[in-house]
Design goal:
Oligomer: single chain
Distance between the termini: 70 Å
Mean pLDDT: 81
Structural class: mainly alpha
Helix content: over 70%
Strand content: under 5%
């Protein structure tokens, strides 16, 4: 009888020990599952924020791409309108006023002044065109690097996240996410 009681007691102790082991393993798995769910939620939030910022950036880009077309059309219509009025005005003035006699020296000096002014304007225009092509070349080189590559390069060069955000015209959070994803 005592042997039966002792064996039953040992069996109960073994079952309690097994139950405690199983409970501890179960709680570990539950903790790991909770942690994974939290990480999934964080990643989901980070990606959704990133996607929202990308959408805003795309919308901003689309609006900027539409603006130059409107500005260029307005500028071309202005140029055409002024060219037409300029062409019409000299004809009307010539028809109304009789021709005046102008000394040859005075006409030659006026012609020279006009010619030098045109040359100066042409040189200025050429310099502006060269500067524009250089700036376009720089933009093309920068455009060859993706936005992410530019951010990572700036970060590796020692710039802070706030500085990069200001330079790139983006939010700090977006820059932080890019750095975290690529670091």
């Amino acid at each position: 009888m005592i042997a039966v009681v002792i064996t039953l007691f040992l069996i109960q102790m073994i079952t309690i020990f097994v139950i405690v082991l199983l409970y501890s393993k179960l709680s570990k798995f539950q903790n790991i599952e909770k942690r994974q769910n939290e990480l999934i939620n964080e990643m989901d939030n980070a990606i959704s924020v990133y996607l929202m910022e990308m959408k805003e950036e795309n919308d901003r880009l689309i609006s900027e791409l539409k603006k130059p077309n409107v500005v260029q059309k307005a500028a071309s219509t202005r140029k055409e309108g002024t060219a037409q009025t300029i062409k019409e005005q000299p004809v009307k003035e010539q028809e109304m006023e009789p021709r005046k006699f102008v000394p040859v020296k005075q006409a030659a000096s006026a012609y020279q002044k006009q010619k030098t002014q045109q040359q100066v304007e042409e040189k200025d225009n050429e310099a502006l065109e060269k500067a524009e092509t250089l700036s376009e070349d720089n933009e093309i080189q920068e455009q060859n690097l993706t936005f992410e590559q530019q951010v990572i390069n700036h970060y590796r060069n020692g710039k802070s996240i706030e500085e990069i955000a200001r330079m790139m015209g983006r939010g700090k959070t977006e820059i932080e996410l890019l750095v975290k994803f690529h670091a």
